[in-house]
């Protein structure tokens, strides 16, 4: 079973989305300042998928900001936005295999 969370549950790992309750078709800003940038990564990509089976996957380049890394994606019609992060050395932050999963409100 997939674990779904709102962004407050991932604050300890420095993963935040806005809005916290996205709807299909809405732009979702993903902010990340977790394990990879804290370990010195200068380039981070968000690995994005939807639903339990990670459909419509894509790697999205994140822009470095003073608060970490950010990118914006558009939520689709699945019930879950799934995110993990990787750096240019192929190191991953996938929340210890649980990934970062956010509800998409229909």
UniProtKB/TrEMBL annotation:
Gene3D superfamilies: Immunoglobulins. It holds the Pfam family CBM53. InterPro entries: CBM25 (IPR005085), Ig-like_fold (IPR013783). This is Carbohydrate binding module family 25 domain-containing protein. It comes from the Bacteria. Residues 25-105 form the Carbohydrate binding module family domain. The lineage of its organism: Bacteria, Bacillati, Bacillota, Negativicutes, Selenomonadales. GO terms for molecular function: starch binding.
């Amino acid at each position: 079973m997939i674990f779904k969370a709102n962004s407050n549950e991932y604050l300890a790992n420095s993963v935040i989305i806005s809005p916290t309750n996205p709807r299909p078709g809405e732009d979702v800003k993903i902010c990340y300042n977790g394990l990879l940038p804290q370990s010195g990564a200068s380039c981070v990509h968000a690995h994005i998928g939807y639903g339990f089976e990670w459909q419509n996957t894509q790697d999205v380049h994140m822009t470095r900001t003073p608060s970490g890394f950010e990118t914006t994606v558009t939520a689709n019609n699945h019930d879950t936005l799934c995110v993990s992060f990787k750096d240019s050395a192929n190191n991953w932050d996938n929340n210890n295999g649980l990934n970062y999963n956010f509800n998409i409100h229909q």
